[in-house]
Structures
1.
Amino acid sequence: MKTTFRYLPDNRSLTAALIAVVLLLMVFSCAAPDRGGYPPVETLPETEIDLPGSGDVPVVRVLILETGDRIRIDIPGGQVAAKSEDGRTIGRFEVSGTLALSKTKNGLRLKQRNRPVHEAPIMEIRPTGNSGFTIEETPYRGGLLLRRHGGKKIQAINVIEIDDYLKGVLPSEIGYLKEGQYEAYKVQAIASRSYALSKLEEKKNEPFDMRATIMDQVYKGIKGENRVASEAVEKTRGIVGVWGGEPIRAYYSACCGGHTSDVRVGWPWKAHYPYLYGRRDAHGEAGKSFCSSSRHFRWEVVWSGSDLSRITGKTLPAELGGRVPPFNVIRDIKVVGYAPSGRARAIEIVTDKGTHRVEGDRIRWVLRPDSSRGPILRSTLFKMEVSRGGGRVKQIRIKGGGNGHGVGMCQTGAIGMATEGFSAERILAHYYPGVSLVRIY
Ligand SMILES: [Zn+2]
């Protein structure tokens, strides 16, 4: 099945994109400097600190470290804006070399050799030029925002131009691709850029936009970059998938098993987007799946009744909260409804103490194959065979397909399509139907 794709922006989406750019600039324009309210730090001449990308390129704020311990930062040179709890600039000072950051009762303390110690609730480090910084031996581009989180933690947030961020995302998210698969890097760049931009509006009143983990997109800073992926980021500079005037929430996962998932099936509790419906990942309904080369395309897991009981004894309360009383045996387990993709919409687990329903992608967190803390089930695209006896489940066998939630782009499928010669535009049109590509910066 081939979808027509509008690569050139129509007027409406172009207008929407321009509005989006204006909004982004408004979000990221720096607050006017202000003093007072907090003990003064060493004062420098009044020069406004421009965060990276405060021109026309969007900037993202990525949580890269959260710890209760002291943090080591290395920086060739830079300036720090000390800020109050509500974000007002209360002082500025210069830094270079090795910095030690620790907690105080009410904020942060920054020490550097032969220089005064500085304390403030929030510190924003702007490295000189493009020098970046190193935190706990991992180098990053862009700037660094440091803040307290709750009573015990320090959060380190990388404030970085979106394309520099994407360079540290691509290799971790789609791997190191072979020659002939280059279009898949472009696809991943556009999908990751769209996803990141779609978070900005939603998170604008929070301290960061994304985490550097699978919760959002895996991001490893400069260590995570490779030359070819970086080139794909540059070649697709500013290009974003847009629907209804907004950057798309471009979810993706490793392998869909031959059919992507409708977002309403995977995450019935999340927002629905019309371009995230399930589709066959192949040439036509009967064709060979684009992702069939994945080692996760088909798989099988077997649990004994006692293993299942032991694992779900921990995972059910973890996922469903206080509604799950401790139980001794599992009397029955079954799938309650399948989506057209073949994914289980929900499962029902009957214990000697009650019946529990687990919906959508949460099933994967409950039915862990090895242990209650081990890897999650690869996908909800499965069939389940249950052996029962003596009023309890004796064994279950799951035959499944794919790896990941299956919503949006199938990454192995995108690589498969690239290998077959499809362009990035065509691949994106396949996984995010009805979406326009627009260059917004
Ligand atoms: Zn697939």
2.
Amino acid sequence: MNKGIVIYSTGTGNTAYLAGKIKARFEEKGYSFDLFEVVSSSKRVDLSQYSLIVLSYPVYAFNMPVIFERYVSSLDLSRGGSYLICKQSGEPLSLNDSSDYRLLRLIAKSGRPFLGAYHYLYPYNIHFRYPDDFVKELLNYDSLLMDIMMAELERGTVRRRPYSLLRAFVGSVLKIQRAGAKLNSFFYKVDEGKCVRCLRCVNLCPTKNIRLENGKIAFSHRCIMCMRCSFLCPKDAIGIGMLEKWKVNGPYPLAKIEADPSLKGEYSSRFEKGFYSWFKKAFAEAEREHRHYFGK
Ligand SMILES: Cc1cc2nc3c(=O)[nH]c(=O)nc-3n(C[C@H](O)[C@H](O)[C@H](O)COP(=O)(O)O)c2cc1C
């Protein structure tokens, strides 16, 4: 039975893009593959249909999104086949690694095979907007990592980072972000002069936290800070409270950037210090591993 599924959570579309890439790669290998996005109203998937289950999510404050954690915890993983983790985040800091510790425990408890955990890189949807050339560099990295992942799966090499108590501790402290998201939602504001009542935010919110009330957009307090509403608002009309200075508005055209030959994807090579230089080690490691498996 070569049937797989990517069960994923996304705020602003990066994980959905990654999920599509994973599906396409496995379909090339003869799998049939489903995609399943977790939202607050998601019904439990019947895992017994799947020989391969890919769990995929964006990292929030070095943790999984709370709806994803709750959803996966509610499944009986012993009914599924083998498990693979594909997380993704805006930077390669090893602190992001502890975000999957709970998944690793759940998979171990299920007694089903664990195939490895891979950390993909996508642009920030919060803090600041990445330049297109850098997004291209990240997408190039992701493509190398996916080749490496497929090669390791074929060879039965299980990629897992060693457990770190320090990372687990920092991650658990930063779960405070989940309560912070609720608190911050008391400060969300819509600029009535800009809002055109297109209801995109109302219709797209994964936790159904946004509604139209007396002709105005109103927020409840089930926010998970995924940024979908403010990121995708076509009029940039949504203010996100204490995080306003970190707001990024407007989707990254990932497929267009990936296909654009004028973007060289060598952005980080200009930086010896600072944020962009953090990525160089991850890029060099992927190139080295890719050469190891593919000889070029
Ligand atoms: C509330 C919040 C917290 C985040 N925390 C982290 C983090 O700890 N580490 C990181 O590398 N990226 C972090 N990011 C960036 C996202 O992981 C990144 O932009 C991701 O690609 C978004 O995926 P999505 O489009 O599927 O939601 C954070 C984003 C948000 C909205």
